[in-house]
Structure formats: C-alpha cells, structure tokens
C-alpha cells in the first residue's frame, strides 16, 4: 500500500475474511432464529464454517450453520437483529450478490462490503462485543440407547404448532410405538391434539426412528420404522414431555417460505431428560441447474444449505412415561 | 371566481395513470392551485412539516379551452383530496369505456369550480393564503448549484426500504464530482451506499486522483472539507416517501442540496414521449426538511 495516499493502513490483517453470496438466503436462515426483538448472537468459526448462536437463557438455544470458506477463527458477539437487517440491505435484487466480510476492523467492528461495480458499493460496520459464554446446558445427549426422532414435513410442523396456540397451555409431545405416531397436545382453556401417524400420514410424518442402527441423517425417505419390534405393550410411550409453548413456537415461527416451497422436512429428536432438538434445512441459494423438483433429499451442494438447530428444554415436572 | 377547462386525452392519461396515484402517496390532501398559465399540485407548502412536493403543469399539458378568472389576479387555490379526485376520474373513465358503443364522440371531461356556500371544507383559499402559497412556491423554485443524476430508482427504493429497519436518520452527500452518498450512522452500526461518477448538472469539479483508494467515508469527508460536496441529515422515511414518485414513471431523477444546506431536493424529469428531451411543461420535485446533525 502506498504510504502517502492510503489512509487506512491496517496494523494487522483481519482475522476473518470471507465472501458470502446468496445474501438473501442467509437472511432467511438467520431470520428463522429471530424470536424476539433484541437478541445477542455469538458468531464463531468452527469446522462447520460460520456458526451463529442465540439463546434465551435457561430455556432455548438456536444455532445456524453456514458452510463457507473462511480464513481465521474469530469469535465475537453482535446484535442478531441488527446483523440480519444490515445483511438485508445488501440483498437488494438487481445488485451484485457477493458480500465480503472482514473482522476485526480498526475498532473491532465487523466490516461488510459489497461492490456492485467500480462506481457503486454498499458498506457497513457493525459494532461487536466480547461474546457471552455459550451455556453448555444444551449439550444434547441421546435418551438412552435408543435415539428417539421423527421427521415431519416442515410446513405441517409449523401449521401444527401454530394451531396449538389456541389451547393456551404448554405442549405435550408424545412418541408412541403402536401405531408409530407422534402426538402434540395442548390442554388449556380448550384441548387440542394433533396426531401424526406414521402409516396414515406418510407424506407428513416422513421418518420415525427408535432403532439405534438407523442413521441420524433425516433427509432419507427410506428409513423404515421398527417401532413395533420388542416392546411389551402399546401403552408405553417412547417419550412424553411438555414444552413451554412460546419456546416451541420459536422453533417454527420464522421458518422461511423457501423451506415450505422446497417441501423440506424438519427432524425432531428427544434427548436425555426430554431435551428437544429441532433441525431445519434452509436453502441458501437457488440451485444453479434447475431441478424439476426439489424434495427433502435436497440434491444441492452442501454450501447451498444452512443448518438450523433449536434446543428446547422441557418443562420440569414428573416425567411419567406411560398413560396420558 | 370562474374556472372552466377540458382535460385533454394526454392530461387524462397522465393524471389517472401516473400523477395522481404517485401524488396520493405523498399525502392524500394537497392544494390545487390554478393560475393563468399553470396548474399546480402542492403538498405542505403552507405548513412547515414534512416533505414539500411541487408538481407543476403548463396548462396545455393537461387542458384545452382553459378559462380562469378571479379577483385575485386570476389565481385560484383550494384544498383537495387526491384519492377522491383519482376515484372520480377513474369512475368517469370506467363509465365511458362501458358506454363506448353508444357514444362515438371522444370523451370530454370538463373541470369546473363551483362555490358551495356554507361548506367551509370546500372553500377556496383566501387572497392572503393564496399570496402565501405563491410566495412559498417562488421560494421552492430555488435550485441547488449542483445536481447529480440518481442511480436506478427501483434499486434505490428497494435499498432505502430496507435501510428503514436499521436507522431513522441518514446523511446524504452530493458532490461536484458526481458522487451521491447515503449513510446511516448510529452507535451500533454504520451503513452506507456510495454511487460515483453520476451525471452532474450545474457546478462540477474533477475528483482528486488519489481519492480512488480511500474508503467511501473518507472520500466524502475530504470532498466536504474541500467544499466540493455538501452533507445534510434527512429522515430515511422522507427519503423513501419521495422515491415513491418513481410510480409516476419519470425518466430520471436528480438529487441536490439547496444553498446553505437548507433542504434536500429531488427533481423528477419526464421526457417528451419518444424522445430524450426533457418535457419542460411538467415539473415534479420534492424538498425534504433537513434535520439537526445531533438528532441521530
């Protein structure tokens, strides 16, 4: 850099330099973890790429994984809402879609820049802070030797949870082996029960797993249910836990419309102690080659998909596993 | 007072499809001001709040057989509800379209002003008010020394629409080099867009060579220091509101800052259909109030 003309001589190269394309897709992915106005996020690099973590202390945590080539391993805190609203200004249609991120700036800011042409650019600087320590309460462990999970069409899940607002109570999620089904139930000033029956609603309840040998990758349609194998009686549930409505709601309320359009599935897993993990896949970019149909198998390059994970703590109560 | 005129086909088209819907977005109520030669739609000229909008038409661009007389130097002004006017015009056109088979004559829409004694809401403006309006109009004709041509209006509109979520106030800089710079700056975030090498009308200057390597912010600061640029603070909402005039389908727009930074001005130009020549019989511009720099 010329010493006379250049004003900003950076003392050291920034830790993080990466390029984002498909900014709108990233905005969609991050929007899915916005459940209230002010949320502090922690942004860090891991082997997955960029991870953004937000939490509601003691109750709910969400992570967004964006697979990106990036240099450096920084970690900083920033306001999620501001970050998303700022990214949104970069994703104006008709403009160059490449956004360059740098960190840290001279004042520890996150620097963003999008260059349309030599004569037009958009730039931003977002103040960061020392990140909060992420609580490890959400260290998810399988419930016993049998992983308990099911995959539901995201649209159906969102609709079910939206409907369950009506009872005005916490929501019970039960996994039953015979017939293999998932029951969502709310009992408040009214009762509402929504059943997903593996054999009856095969296009809604896509997979139901209770066999350890079944892979955890929930994109696979062909997993069979072995629920009826060795269990003694029909009345024994695999799992039966209650979750506060507003936290369950947070896991689907801002699912981007692309998820619904792409016909994706969301996987729910119940871990030890009743911790609920909800996973979504969000397309970050349209496939470059148009596919006649994109199903949940989602034939797309990995970097075109963002992974969203929510962890919801159950309501503390006596965990009786049978009869309802 | 008397006013009678017939809307031309061009006038009907212009008003119904482009002008009235756009002006309505600025504000439902405005002043309609007729003089011997012009018709004006004026927003906020008599109060000091909000964005001022001046839409000026030479009478021939809208009317034929234009007759006006009043004791106030043949000037007439009154408040009007634009949405009602638009709706009335649309209804007439709809009825005409339906009855076309029966009436082979071209549509003639006569515009007339009739006094309605006892209806305070339909009173034309008093002589004093008209005087004030005329004065405000003359002041509003003051143009900036430098105007830069706006980048694509749809793009700008989209961008500013999203900027609204980030902050309320933005700095707007116009430079003699042909730069337009928009920036929101709060304690948590700075967000800006820079458009360079835009067409310049009026006073211009050549940029300094070394500036190309600087950041947008530094470049602008230096230009202001050299007095080659001016920055004012404007409301993002106001800025966005003016961009709604893109629905009137202007052919281009220009931004400038009034002398002494009194206000931010955006001028919309229409070309004579089929040419790239400015139609001087129509002029549409907005004047945005400037905020205190400390109001962020």
Automatic annotation (TrEMBL), chain A:
DNA repair as UniProt keyword: yes
Name of one Pfam family that matches: Rad1
UniProt KW keywords: DNA damage, DNA repair, Nucleus
Record bears the keyword Nucleotidyltransferase: no
Major localisation: nucleus
InterPro entries: Rad1_Rec1_Rad17
Family: Belongs to the rad1 family.
The protein's name: Cell cycle checkpoint protein
Source organism (scientific name): Rehmannia glutinosa (Chinese foxglove)
Taxonomy of the source species: Eukaryota, Viridiplantae, Streptophyta, Embryophyta, Tracheophyta
TrEMBL record, chain B:
Membrane found in the keyword field: no
Keyword Cytoplasm: no
Main location: nucleus
Subcellular location: Nucleus
InterPro entries: HUS1, HUS1/Mec3
Entry keywords, A to Z: Nucleus
Pfam families, per database record: Hus1
Family designation: Belongs to the HUS1 family.
UniProt name for this protein: Checkpoint protein
């Amino acid at each position: 850099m010329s010493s006379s003309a250049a004003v900003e001589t950076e003392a050291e190269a920034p830790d993080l330099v990466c390029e984002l394309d498909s900014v709108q897709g990233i905005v969609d992915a991050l929007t899915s973890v916005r459940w209230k106005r002010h949320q502090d996020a922690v942004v860090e690099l891991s082997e997955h790429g960029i991870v953004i973590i937000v939490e509601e202390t003691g109750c709910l945590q969400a992570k967004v994984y964006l697979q990106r080539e990036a240099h450096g391993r920084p970690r900083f805190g920033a306001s999620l809402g501001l970050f998303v609203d700022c990214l949104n200004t970069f994703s104006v249609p008709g403009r160059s879609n490449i956004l360059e991120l740098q960190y840290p700036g001279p004042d520890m800011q996150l620097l963003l820049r999008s260059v349309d042409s030599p004569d037009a650019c958009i730039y931003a600087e977002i103040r960061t802070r020392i990140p909060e320590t992420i609580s490890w309460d959400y260290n998810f462990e399988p419930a016993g030797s049998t992983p308990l999970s099911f995959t539901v069409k995201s649209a159906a899940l969102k609709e079910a949870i939206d409907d369950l607002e009506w009872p005005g109570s916490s929501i019970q999620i039960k996994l039953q082996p015979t017939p293999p089904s998932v029951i969502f139930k709310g009992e408040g000033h009214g009762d509402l029960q929504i059943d997903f029956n593996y054999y009856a609603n095969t296009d809604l309840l896509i997979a139901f797993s209770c066999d350890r040998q079944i892979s955890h990758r929930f994109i696979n349609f062909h997993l069979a249910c072995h629920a009826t194998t060795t269990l003694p009686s029909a009345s024994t549930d695999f799992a039966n836990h209650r979750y506060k409505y507003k936290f369950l709601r947070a896991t689907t309320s801002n699912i981007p419309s692309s998820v619904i359009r792409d016909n994706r599935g969301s996987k729910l897993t119940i871990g030890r102690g009743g911790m609920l993990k909800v996973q979504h896949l969000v397309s970050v970019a349209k496939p470059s080659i148009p596919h006649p149909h994109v199903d949940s198998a989602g034939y797309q390059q990995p970097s075109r998909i963002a992974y969203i994970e929510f962890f919801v703590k159950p309501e503390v109560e006596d965990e009786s596993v049978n009869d309802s | 007072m008397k006013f009678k005129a017939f809307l031309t086909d061009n006038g009907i088209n212009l008003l119904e499809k482009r002008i009235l819907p756009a002006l309505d977005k600025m504000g439902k109520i405005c002043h309609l001001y007729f003089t011997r030669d012009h018709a004006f739609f004026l927003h906020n000229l008599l109060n000091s709040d909000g964005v001022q909008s001046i839409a000026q038409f030479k009478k021939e661009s809208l009317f034929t057989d234009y007759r006006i007389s009043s004791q106030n130097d043949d000037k007439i002004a009154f408040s009007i509800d634009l949405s009602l006017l638009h709706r009335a015009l649309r209804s007439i056109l709809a009825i005409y379209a339906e009855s076309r088979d029966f009436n082979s004559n071209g549509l003639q829409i006569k515009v007339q002003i009739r006094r309605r004694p006892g209806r305070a809401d339909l009173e034309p403006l008093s002589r004093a008010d008209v005087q004030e309006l005329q004065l405000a109009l003359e002041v509003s004709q003051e143009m900036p020394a430098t105007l830069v041509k706006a980048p694509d209006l749809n793009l700008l509109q989209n961008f500013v629409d999203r900027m609204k979520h980030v902050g309320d106030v933005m700095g707007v800089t116009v430079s003699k080099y042909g730069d337009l710079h928009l920036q929101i700056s709060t304690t948590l975030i700075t967000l800006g867009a820079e458009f360079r090498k835009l067409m310049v009308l009026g006073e211009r200057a050549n940029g300094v060579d070394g500036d190309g390597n600087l950041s947008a912010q530094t470049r602008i600061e230096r230009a202001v220091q050299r007095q080659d640029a001016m920055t004012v603070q404007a409301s993002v909402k106001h800025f966005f509101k003016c961009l709604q005039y893109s629905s009137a389908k202007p052919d281009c727009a220009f931004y400038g800052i009034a002398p002494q930074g009194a206000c931010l001005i955006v001028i919309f130009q229409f070309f004579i259909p089929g040419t790239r020549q400015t139609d001087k019989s129509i002029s549409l511009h907005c004047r945005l109030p400037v905020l205190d720099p400390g109001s962020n």
